[in-house]
């Protein structure tokens, strides 16, 4: 909160990302420093010069077999009908694989083809040809050959070749130092006590991790206040001691966004605003010969901007290409809208269902870090495309290994806290498997099964007519599909209320009576359908409820909103209330079942899932939470009409 | 060399690799140790337990925009025809993105939609809806949600989420300690002076690199002599202090291969010999609860065995899946023969030519480390397949990034030392490009162009009739193809001879006169064709030449063989002799040209190649070597009849 009047520059450029990148790469012409390292210390480092072999390997004529060394020309008479007897020392000597062949010998006979007569004599019945079973000098490495060019990132086996060629200390490119400067009055260190309006500074640690992964050396500065003079001082110091400078936040065009002005004052600005979302409010400039990248404050924007501009600078310094992510073609589960004239970076969940990759966008909000953490891939919508229709195929860059995506069980539907536990248990049994879940609500879960976008959907849908859970919905919405309904959990739904229930809420009418700040769930969520049913039974209209339109996507999110609001109220499951130390007034015992295609249910993954649900370990974990009963091993619910 | 009589067990098992692996994974049931690390130290480490959020992010109602905070219900009357004037403090306050929304405000209006009247008053013409532009508590992270399960390898952005959720110190799995024990009387440390029969111990450093890459902690022991008592002592000590033990060499069935006996004596042996090549002579056992992997001595066998058995053990300890390599389907340029009943791991060069991946096997010799270093991929021939025909398609696992393979210029044909320089220069200009060369000789180079397996072939083929280089061969062998012949180098061919030329060789007849140890080149090599021509002109038969059948694949390899043999002699280029300090007697000035398809010559890559050949920097480098003249910028040779 700030009471000063508003002064700002509202507009940013929309410079194409590639153009902005090429400009700074051309402007940054540092000569990389070289350091000399012992080979064992050089793993992952980048050669600064071509490296040539100092010796050959083998560096002598070596036996390629266990056997005897002979003079080939003296064995030419040997034949099955004419065995040749050789005397040790004079005619032959024993050699093992790798042994040097002593003069005058020039061939090796394998031990399997030799008959030992006595300690001094052997018999052979076949001649040897010159140089047989002898490794030529330099068979592996030839002295003076180029082992690696400059710009080669050293892998484990490369170190062996260097040692073998007697290159023991090698020139590698110094890791470029990247100064990371977090700015903002709202920032506090992670260890600080939190208060309203304060944000933990974590981007710096994330940037440091990226820089390390890319082969640079991060140097993380302490938090700098939003004071232009202080920021200038820190930037000038960084321009002396670092090779690349990253300054976080203040890069937009708001009244506290000093970055662009300061860079312009101390050096030059190349770009203010790139045609890419999120990440648009990026500043690119140079101070005293060092490139400065001003990245936006929102985490996802920041990570993308870092990748677009700082990774290429690090790679340019090292003399290596920018690594490319593996790509895969996916079918889009939803329509994706994009703006003309700008690239859109859409974080995607990808599932592998029925032999096809299916992808759905996660939230587009740049402030939602978890959307980046949870994403399996990035869909990059080019500037000249306004989006894709549902069902279109598109190429995405993978943020996780392909195998991890292929082995994941895709879970859709209603949110329940036990799904994470289930995933964790699954991973204990099979480290290469997990459950990827998206909380879209029961109805959307059913639709995901129908569209082949999920393996399993969790649903809890009360039929107002039959008073039965789930069965009628599955019958109707998945008619004609070979699906099963697996009874998973019974759980308690009820009012989630501030500690002590100050408004004394125990029924929907109490919400109206007290004008409580209700927190609702999204459309299609089983809990919302339950709430609507409660309203209908009471004869109330949605308009009577304050906050009816305030939609959250999970029970925990509802509880989090209620937490700290003395007038708050929500509807959700018991463990969500318990987790936040809130009050809970039960409303219904509901049946939370799993819908699956029969083919999945009967597959190896499906069987494993059921096995884990039925395990004592999982049941114990769930029942310890409270408010649950694992049904798990009952019969499938009948879907017959 | 060893004069003791021979005692050995000749046969090894042929156990399927997967079976052998499952056995040791089942036998190794260590409980991983946990350590607690500060988040910033935990990059790349693996979570030991599920980790839950301690606080929400945002942990307060935060403005999602720069603007003003208002009470939504008090703005409902605002309209273009009915502007509403609000007073600071009472009716609104200014907020920036991320600021906390103070009570009683419950909505934000973007600054763009606000008209500032004076320092205390603003005007709005549109109502706000409750909670608009306010980030709900937990929009990103909800307190108590599971952030990561156990077995999650932490990436940069994950660290941010942990800090934001106030998980500052987290439980990770300790890196499993892998003891690496090199054994062998023939081994010397890399810094030692080399003598015949001594081999530099480099596998230990390579293993350490692999273990680090896989997330373990290598502990490399000094070299242990081939003495059973000493080996026992070291193994028992390792079983106390390490989690996994690797012992290098002595794993086969020769007379000094003690490993299997010692493991059997100290613990139990599960496997001695796996059905996979190279890498068959592997021993798997257990001593005092720790798995021991005895890997073969030949480098390529050793690296493969390590990957097959040690990587899964490390991953099992960490609780993560074994990473899979990216795969790609390639067309095979040559026939590949494999043995029934065993898997074959064939190192492959892969080129991307005319939009297709084409792959050729490198040497199958397990002792040739460079074949592993140079390989782009591994073709794994299953045990029930006896191989593939030329032109078949097969899937290979990539050892390099796909993009690196796609951007490489594939060079085939005759060996020349300048090709590495050319590649190095190319990489200076475009870090994502390089030349991948295989030395197959001029004739095979032409065939590679014909079959679409290479972009460029280097050839030097003298036509005995026309006395012209290259033209007649290209006309005949590439008839009907749209190719060009680019004049690249003139270079000196001659006799490569021991220092001082003790045998006084200056003609092919001198080889016969002195019975010199001749070192020849492989069939199809231009140098061999030249030698055959010399023989023919002299009226000599190949049988007259000692060593005619001793074939090397490069000029340097010929020089390496001549080096140190007072009776040696070879035919090759001047710089090879010079590099090894050998004598050189010129025989011919030859024209070394480049054949390319016209489409490649005119492509971006082709133009870049020519540009670098014509650069002063490249010419200087080449002419500094001696024996060369870069032709480079002359006209293309005419191929018209």
TrEMBL record, chains A, B:
- Reading the lineage from the top rank, the first entry is Bacteria
Enzyme class (EC, first level): transferase
Q: Per its record, what are the GO molecular function terms?
A: metal ion binding; molybdopterin molybdotransferase activity
One GO-annotated biological process of the protein: Mo-molybdopterin cofactor biosynthetic process
Keywords, A to Z, come to: Magnesium, Metal-binding, Molybdenum, Molybdenum cofactor biosynthesis, Transferase
Catalysed reactions, semicolon-separated = adenylyl-molybdopterin + molybdate = Mo-molybdopterin + AMP + H(+)
DNA repair: is it a keyword of this entry?
no
Q: Please verify whether the record's keywords include Cell membrane.
A: no
Q: Which pathway is this protein assigned to?
A: Cofactor biosynthesis; molybdopterin biosynthesis
Q: Which cofactor does it need?
A: Mg(2+)
Q: Per the database record, which ranges form the MoaB/Mog domain? A: 179-316
> What family is this protein classified in?
Belongs to the MoeA family.
Protein name (database record): Molybdopterin molybdenumtransferase
